[in-house]
Amino acid sequence: MANHKSAAKQARRNEARRLRNRWWRSRLRSALKTYRAAVDAGEKEKAGSLLAPTLGLVDKTAKAGVIHDNTAARTKSRLQAAYNKLG
After folding, report:
1. Are the C-beta atoms of residues 51 and 83 closer than 8 Å to each other?
2. DSSP 8-state symbol, 87
3. Cα distance between residue 16 and residue 59, in whole Å
4. How far apart are alpha carbons 48 and 85 in whole angstroms?
5. Distance from the CA of 81 to the CA of which of 22, 34, 42, 87 falls in 20 to 30 A?
6. CATH architecture assignment, domain 5-85
7. Mind listing the pLDDT tens digit for each residue in 6-37?
8. Contact by Cβ (8 Å): 54, 37
């Protein structure tokens, strides 16, 4: 329990940020899981239709500060490479 008003406010803000970050991370993980399932199954059409929205979600998650910019870049590179490997 916070001893000062400012500490109580900071605790509330931290909780709100935690929930928001969890929501972003959950959306991202779900999208990545769906995309990777399509790639693993060799479904080029489905993977192609999922690629752009997934890459956009990675960017938005990084912009929200949930993941680091370099992590986003690395993830996007790996997603694109997996799609290109489908042939």
Report:
1. yes
2. -
3. 21
4. 12
5. 22
6. Up-down Bundle (1.20)
7. 999 999 999 999 999 999 999 999 999 999 99
8. no
What is the Rg, in whole angstroms, of the alpha carbon atoms belonging to the chain?
17
| Length of the chain as a residue count | 87
What pLDDT is recorded for position 29?
98
**What is d(CA 44, CA 67) in angstroms, rounded to the nearest whole number?**
27
Q: What is the DSSP letter of 66?
A: S
**CA atoms of 35 and 40, how far apart (whole Å):** 9
Average pLDDT over residues 61-79: 98
| Cα 68 to Cα 40: distance, rounded to the nearest angstrom | 26
